[in-house]
């Protein structure tokens, strides 16, 4: 196991495989780096260096009481890229990880970055506010917090139903994906997982998106029940100066696991383009 000791003493687990141009992955909530296994194997076999970390408090990283904030997540990513001397990287972020990538660019720039991919990503802002009337009401996120506090084991059993669109007519339900989601979710510390709900739902990434000055691919399913496309991807593509939006018709939130072949192909095409 590879672990980086961050400046505040937190142990950050990461995978660093292969050689070549680095592709760096940031996972969604409440998962860990394992959510990217299919992409890391695919790209690693094609001559790329693939890197993914468990966000602080999640997976095999240290379970932190403090510091579970989007700014700190971005700074942790910066410390990892600095420690590994990553250059000309493609940053790929899913859901909360998309916010982490955007905030990284907002705080640290693109000196180490060649391209960005945002998959089912939370930016620019999930929460319904006066300035974001199409957002999700705070009561929904309060319900997520309640689920985590009262019985997160059951909550993480239930959440994949909408995360992967298993509730849609004709959906092919994978118990393996459901079990993997539960296992990864339960590996997170309850305090970091709880804190992260506020971070992915209430952080405004508008100004961060405007600072992404490298080619950017935004991928989103138009039936994403977790991060609604109308208030996320369709707004983000208008804010990122050099962005392209690719919509997966009928696509759910967990596209990296559900649409492995298609997403891998689109990812490779963008990297090589």
UniProtKB/TrEMBL annotation:
Alphabetically sorted, this entry's keywords are: Oxidoreductase, Peroxidase
Tell me which family the UniProt entry assigns to this protein: Belongs to the AB hydrolase superfamily. Bacterial non-heme haloperoxidase / perhydrolase family.
Official protein name in the record: Non-heme chloroperoxidase
User: Which intervals hold domain AB hydrolase-1?
Assistant: 22-253
Where does the source fall among the domains of life? Bacteria
The question of whether RNA-binding is a record keyword is answered with: no
Kindly give the InterPro entries that the UniProt entry links to this protein. AB_hydrolase, AB_hydrolase_1, AB_hydrolase_fold, Epox_hydrolase-like
Q: Which SUPFAM superfamilies match?
A: alpha/beta-Hydrolases
Q: Which organism is it from?
A: Azotobacter beijerinckii
One of its Pfam families is Abhydrolase_1
GO MF annotation: an example = peroxidase activity
UniProt KW Oxidoreductase keyword: yes
């Amino acid at each position: 196991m590879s672990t980086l000791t961050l400046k505040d003493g937190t142990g950050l687990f990461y995978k660093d495989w292969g050689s070549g141009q680095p592709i760096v992955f940031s996972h969604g909530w409440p998962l860990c780096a394992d959510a990217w296994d299919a992409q890391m194997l695919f790209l690693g076999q094609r001559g790329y260096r693939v890197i993914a970390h468990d966000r602080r408090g999640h997976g095999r990283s240290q379970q932190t009481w403090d510091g579970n904030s989007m700014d700190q997540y971005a700074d942790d990513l910066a410390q990892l890229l600095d420690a590994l001397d990553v250059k000309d990287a493609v940053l790929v972020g899913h859901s909360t990880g998309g916010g982490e990538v955007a905030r990284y660019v907002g705080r640290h720039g693109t000196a180490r970055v060649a391209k960005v991919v945002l998959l089912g990503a939370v930016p620019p802002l999930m929460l319904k506010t006066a300035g974001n009337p199409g957002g999700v009401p705070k009561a929904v996120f309060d319900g997520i917090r309640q689920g985590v506090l009262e019985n997160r084991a059951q909550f993480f059993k239930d959440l994949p139903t909408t995360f992967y669109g298993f509730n849609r007519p004709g959906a092919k339900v994978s118990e393996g994906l459901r079990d993997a989601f539960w296992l990864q979710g339960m590996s997170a510390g309850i305090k970091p997982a709880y804190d992260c709900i506020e971070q992915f739902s209430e952080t405004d990434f508008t100004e961060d998106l405007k600072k992404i000055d490298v080619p950017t691919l935004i991928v989103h399913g138009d039936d994403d029940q977790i991060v609604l496309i109308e208030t996320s991807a369709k707004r983000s593509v208008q804010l990122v100066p050099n962005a392209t939006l690719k919509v997966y018709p009928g696509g759910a939130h967990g596209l990296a696991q559900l649409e492995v072949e298609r997403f891998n192909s689109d990812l490779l095409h963008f990297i090589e383009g």
